[in-house]
Structure formats: C-alpha cells, structure tokens
Amino acid sequence: MALLLETTRRLDTLVTRTQADAAVPTLVAGVVRDGVLTHVSSAGEPPPDPTTQFRIGSITKTMTASLVLRLRDEGRLDLDDPLDRHLPDTPVGRVTLRQLLGHASGLQREPDGDGWWERAEGVDLSTLLAGLTPAKLAHPPHRTYHYSNLAYGLLGGVLERLTGQSWWELVQERLLGPLGMTRTSYQAQEPFARGYLVHPWHGTLREEPRTDTGAMAPAGQLWASVPDLARWAAFLADPDPALLAPETLTEMCVPVAIGDPESWTSGHGLGLELYRSGERVYVGHGGSMPGYVAGLAVHRRSRTGVVTFANAYGFRSGSIGATTRQLLTEVLDHEPEPVKPWRAAAGPPEPAVAELTGRWWWMGREFEASWDGEAEELVFSLLRPLGMAPWRFGRVDADHWRGSSGMNDGEILAVRRNPAGAVRALDIATFVFTRDPDRLD
C-alpha cells in the first residue's frame, strides 16, 4: 500500500533537513507497512543504491535475542537459567539469561581490553571469558537498568555452546536464509557505504576501520541494506511462526526494566528496546559502530516500521533513534491505518459455541459475546461504556476456554450448567456472568 503523496513529502523533507543538521554524508530511511517496503527517503552524497549496505551495530542484538528465545521454545534452555549452567566456572555466572537479555544483569557495559568497539579487533570466546572477574558486576542483578554489550557477547557464547554452531552460522541458518535477507552479512560486501568520523571544526571526513568484533559480534557486528532491514522490521511486527512463535515475540516486548524511571518513556524487553511516543509504544533498537549509526522502530499493532542508516558517527542533531521514531510517528499520524475488510462467516458456529454467544451481565454491566470463526475464538466486548479492548478466548475443551488478550489473558472461562445441561452462567476467573442483569448466578 503506497503512502500518500503528502506523507512522502513530509518524510523526504525531514530526512533532508536532518541530514544537513546532523552533518552526515548520507542519511537513508525506509518505511515498512504490512510487510512491504513502501517508501525510501535519502539525502546526501553519494545517493545509496537499494542494495548498499550499512553497519547496523546493536540492532544485531535483536537477532541474538530471537535465537535465544527460539532455543527456549525448543526446550533447550530456560530464561531463568544462571549463566554458569551454560558457561561453567564463569565468575559472573549467577546472573540469569533473562537478566542478560533485558540489561538487568548489572554487568558492566563493555569487556576489558583495548576496546572491541573503539576500532580494535575483537577476541575469541575463550579470551573473552578469561577476562571476566566478579568485579564486572557494576550493580547487583536486577537492581537497575544498565545497558551491557558484554551481556550479548556472553549470550552469543551460550548459543554456541548449546548448539555446537557458531553464532554467525545460527543467524544465517535460522533467520537470514529463511527471511531472504541476502544482503545482510558478517563483513561488509560491496556495494557498501564507507563510514566516517566528521571533524567537528572543519567538516572533513576520516574513514573508519571495519573491524571483526570476534566474540562480541552478537552485540553489534552485522551489515545490512535497507530492504533487508525492512524485512527484519516486518518480522518484528508480525513474525513467521516457523521461525519464532508470535506469542514469543510478544513476550520479548514485555518490559524487563525501565530505562528512565522518572518519565517512563523507554525501557527494555527481552532483546528489544521499548519507546513510548504519546499514546503509542514502539519496539526496536538503535545501533552504532565507528562510522555508522542505525535505527529500527516498529508499531506492531499497525504493522508499520521505519529503518534508518547514516554513515557517520556523532549525528549532531540529537540521535538517529529519535529521528527514526519521529519518521514513524509522521507515518502513523498522517496515513490511514490499514483496515482488514469484514467477511461474512462461512456458516454459524456449532451449537455448543452458539449457546455461549449473545448478551451477558456482570455487576450491572452489559457484555456481548460473539464468535470469531476465522480465529476460532469467543470474543467478549463491554457494551456500555464503549472503549474496553475485547477479551478473546480460545477453546480448551467443551466447557473451558483460555483467555488470550486483555485483563483475562491466560485466565480460564468456565461454562456453568444446570442439572439439565443448559448453560446457566459463565465463570471468568471467578467473575460470574449471567443472562439476567438482576441475577447473581
């Protein structure tokens, strides 16, 4: 679905103005809607080819986290496993995988050494582990939010020890290949944008090295093109169940820690950053490596996202993350949200389901139960006042249903019957709904 002309003008203007204010050679942004890259804005020289790669930095962490959660779903680990269950004799081994994923482990931000991020080549996993000491815990676990690249180097080590494959092999085999992300790579592949440091006083460019970060690769190694990162944004909006269960991705979006306790505008889930923008919440991640910054933000409900790249570190006008979210807000504010057309049901529900539909009362409040045949769910809506998100229930057995949304997510709806077998009431987590507003049960 193409964007409105006025929206594309807004986006192009914002990208052009930001490229000038931020003093970066090239700034490029792509908009994803309903799984499709619908618009690309770029400014600067040289204009990137659609296949041009940029370094994505810490957006790499979202892929590492997805692999960890997939292994959890396969029963090969538990998120509350201590680290030393998978990396034995680790002096910081009491922290859990969940804490590492959500930056709540208390680990310091970087490993020791010459600086894996500061233009130096990385070390292998054994060297990384050998450099760990108890002093690497800057805070007690789960005491506070503290962003840690080191945590993701260790998570990559867990993946390798559990599977016997390298982290990069896992990324290729389980994510990039199935998603068709052929222009995402470990090292830069032509064509790629050179990354620069912009001199703060006279605006000259110094090309930055393109390092192999070694054991820290799971924290920020990868390169990608705009179409490829757009595919990843579409996956974070609506994942392919063959690669990651949709409910698992939703779990990744639940806050583990709030990054700014005073204003509650940012936090971290299981590998995904969470941002509040007005009444919306976006998920995604930012990325930076010497010479490069990148951004990814997704509004999951509308399946809309924005990806951004710039080939200079510094980004003088705020941050590329803020620009990414501003572009996403522009799209959501000015584009009509895609509406799924209504379709008539193929036929009425079976009698055991049909007898549960209709009007129900609880504490003087009127609800309507309807049947969603496509999803095979019972849907409860509050009729007065309007505005409450519906409760959805999937069938467990003839008289029991499990909630999948809203305040009753995970709760049980039990059908109460009279001695003759007719439905007498619905018990939702001990809240009893009846057909008669004057009757309690």
Structural write-up:
The chain is α+β, with helices and mostly antiparallel strands. The chain has 2 domains: 5-334, Beta-lactamase, CATH 3.40.710; 351-433. 26% of the residues lie in helices and 25% in strands. It is built from 11 helices and 21 strands. The protein has helices at 5-22, 60-73, 97-101, 125-130, 149-163, 167-179, 217-220, 226-237, 246-252, 320-334, 351-354; strands spanning 26-33, 36-44, 53-55, 196-198, 205-207, 223-225, 257-258, 266-268, 273-277, 280-289, 292-299, 304-310, 312-313, 358-362, 365-372, 377-382, 391-397, 400-403, 412-417, 423-428, 431-433. An 8-stranded antiparallel sheet has the order 2-1-12-11-10-9-8-7, with helices on both faces. The protein has an 8-stranded antiparallel sheet with strand order 14-15-16-17-18-19-20-21, with no helix packed on it. Strands 5-4-13 form a 3-stranded mixed sheet, with no helix packed on it. Helix 1 (5-22) packs antiparallel against helix 10 (320-334) and helix 2 (60-73) crosses helix 5 (149-163). It starts with a helix and ends in an 8-residue tail after the last strand.
Structural class: alpha+beta
- Our estimate of the beta-strand percent is 25-35%
Number of strands: 21
Q: What is the overall silhouette?
A: globular
CATH 4th-level superfamily of the largest domain: DD-peptidase/beta-lactamase superfamily
Average of the residue pLDDT scores: 93
Overall helicity: 25-40%
CATH-defined topology of the largest domain: Beta-lactamase
Rg over CA atoms, rounded to whole Å, is: 25 Å
**Unreliable stretches covering 5 or more consecutive residues:** none
Largest pleated sheet? 8 strands, antiparallel
Strand order in the largest sheet: 2-1-12-11-10-9-8-7
Distance between the termini: 50 Å
